[in-house]
Amino acid sequence: MKLGLVFSNDWEIYGDGSGDYYELQEAPLKALLEALESHGAKLTVMAEVGQQWAHLQIGEKESWAREIAQSWERTLADVVKRGSDVQFHLHPQWLSAEHQNGRWTLDLRRWAISSLDDQAIEEALLKGKRYLDSLLKPINPGYECIAFRAGAYCIQPSKIVIGKLLKTGILCDSSVTKGMVNPLFFDYRNAYSSIEPWFASEEDIRYKNRQPEGLLEIPVHSYPSWDSPLLRKYLAPSLFYRVCLGVRLEQEEQDWISRNNQKRLKGYPLHKRPFLMGKVVSPRWWFANLLSRSAIQLDYDFLPSKLFVHLLERILEDHRIEDKGILPVVASGHTKDMQGTENVSRILECIDRSLKTSVLYWTLADAVRYWRSLVVQEAIS
User: Fold this and answer.
1) pLDDT at position 289
2) Domain 2-223+323-380 in CATH 2.60.120.20
3) What is the value of pTM for the model shown?
C-alpha cells in the first residue's frame, strides 16, 4: 500500500474578519508552494470564497478592496497553472459582511453553514462552484470544483448540506476529523474513520452509506490520543509530545513551536476569537483544555515534523487497513498560522529519507477521482 498525501490549506484571514490579506494569505502561500514544489509535492488550496465576494462587492468603490480581490484571483490562477489544486471553502459569516471604520463586521450567527436556510445554502454552494470553475477553467480546461470544506469544519447538522452539495455538483466533502469535538458546532467522535474515505449517509456526514454512492467524505487524518491543547500549544509542548505521544523533539523543533505560538497569539489572541471571548478567563475552560480524550489532527502548521512523519508510518504499519493500492491521507494547514516553511521542509525531507517509495503527493481532486473510480471498479468486478 502507498499513501496519497494531500497537503490541504484553508486559505483565509482570521474568522472575525481581522488580519492583512497580503501578510496572512498571499506571501505565505507563495512560500508554501515553493517549499512543496522543491520536493515534487502539490498543494490543495481550500479557497475561502465568502471573504472574496465581500472584497469584490466593496471593490466596486474601494480601490484597496479591488486590489485584494484581483490579487486573490491572480494567486489562485497561478496555483492551478503550477499544477496544484484549488477547491471550495466557505465561512458563511462573510455572506453579509460589512466594512466600516477600517474593519470588517461579520455575522457570527452564521458561523456554521447549517445556520443558513435551505435556499441560502444551495445558492451559496452553487455560486461558489460556478465562481471557481469560471475563474480557473480558462487556466486549466481540466479543472473542476468538486470538493468542499465547511468553515471551521462546521458541517453539522449535515443532512441538508449533503443534499445541496450533491445537487450543485460537488462530489466530495473534507470537513470531518474523527475524534474532534466543538460543543457548540460539531461532534466527530463517532465518525466512520480517521483515515479511510467513505460515501456518507444521506442523513449524517459521520456515517457510511449502505451503498457506495452519494457524497464522498475524505477526512482530515487524525490520531486518537489524550490531548492537552494548553500543554501541546502553549505551556510545555516538548513535555507533552514526550510523555503523551512518545516523541522526543529536537531543539530546532522546540524553537519552531515556541515561535509559532508567539506569532499566532500576537496576531489572533485567544480572548478576541469568536466563541472564546470571555471563556479563556474561566477555570472551567482551562480545565477542559488541560487534558481530554480527543484526537491529534494531521496539521503541518502545528505538528512537529518528527510526529507528522511518525503518524504516516503508523498508517503504513496498520494491518487493519485494507490495501487498496493507494490510500488518500489528507493533512490540514492554514497560511494564517504559518511561521515560515521550515517545518514543512523538514516534513518533506523526512519523507524523502524514509518514506519516499511509500508516499505519493496528490491533490484533493486526485484523491476524489481515484477513490470514486476504485469503487466503480470494485462494483464491476
Assistant:
1) 66
2) no
3) 0.95
